[in-house]
Specification:
alpha+beta
Length: 288
């Protein structure tokens, strides 16, 4: 049997009357979802969002490109990060790598930053266009137990001035290893760079000091005795000591070193050709 025509027409009018409201609800829900989306937290797999913290991932985010090098101001790199602020801050990378591990160990540890060139070119480059200092490498509080870096390359670094250390050349460093003193800890093995240059003393006949280097105190001398005592810094037992008379008259001079309390006293005796002591001006030089 067919429903009466009046009831069928009523149901049709009811459905038609509700259709616009249903469509409005669906459209409003769609706009609401779009409006709320930017304020949510991006999850793994979402697009990277500018100016916001993105979600923590458990897999690598890979950016692979195939871009040839360029001589222009831009181009030639897979990514570019730049900060136009005058206070710097182009990029920061942080990690929590533990000590004692490497990529080859059972529990691999990676560095926070790795630049790996698979060919023959440079692996990294640092440049400061205007500044006097290119950068800094710090390790906690510093100290002798910290190392700025290690390398297995033993070739000469072009442009790196390692010919002098604390203003000492190789000969001076060797001298440091030979000389032991009781000077303060601010020096290298007890000596500063001035100590490692040849020490000397100019002494007058009366025992007054002229120009000196590495001499402590004054000259000990008894008038008319021809005996002098000069104390130099450091143990000079492995050094060469020479003494020379000053003046035209012939004579003799003897210099004997004696270690006294970490420093070396040089006893000098001057005499004439007959071995009779007499006061004479002289120079003493110490080479280590």
């Amino acid at each position: 049997m067919h429903a009466p025509k009046e009831k069928t027409d009523g149901r049709r009018r009811l459905l038609i009357g509700r259709a616009p409201r249903t469509r409005s609800v669906l459209l409003a829900s769609g706009f609401l979802a779009i409006a709320i989306a930017p304020f949510g937290i991006a999850a793994t797999g979402d697009s990277l969002r500018e100016g916001r913290r993105n979600g923590t991932t458990s897999r690598e985010t890979q950016i692979i490109s195939n871009i040839p090098s360029s001589t222009g101001l831009t181009g030639g790199y897979s990514t570019r990060q730049s900060n136009l602020s005058s206070s710097g801050g182009g990029a920061v990378y942080g990690c929590r790598s533990q000590a004692g591990g490497s990529r080859a160990t059972p529990t691999p540890q990676n560095p926070c930053i790795r630049a790996n060139n698979l060919s023959r070119g440079l692996a990294f480059e640092f440049n400061s266009s205007v500044g006097d200092v290119v950068g800094a490498i710090t390790a906690g509080g510093g100290g002798d137990s910290k190392k700025p870096f290690t390398t297995n390359a033993t070739g000469v670094a072009t442009g790196l001035n390692a010919d002098r250390v604390d203003n000492l050349d190789a000969a001076g460093i060797v001298a440091v290893a030979r000389i032991k003193t009781s000077l303060d800890a601010d020096t290298v093995d007890g000596l500063d760079s001035s100590d490692l240059r040849p020490r000397f003393a100019q002494v007058s006949a009366e025992g007054a000091l002229g120009e000196t280097r590495g001499v402590t105190g004054t000259v000990t001398h008894v008038d008319n005795s021809g005996d002098y005592a000069i104390t130099f810094t450091g143990d000079l037992s492995r050094c060469a000591i020479s003494a020379t008379l000053v003046g035209g008259a012939l004579g003799a001079i003897v210099a004997v070193p004696t270690l006294v309390g970490g420093n070396t006293r040089i006893d000098v005796t001057t005499s004439d050709l007959a071995a009779a002591k007499e006061e004479r001006a002289f120079h003493v030089t110490v080479n280590c």
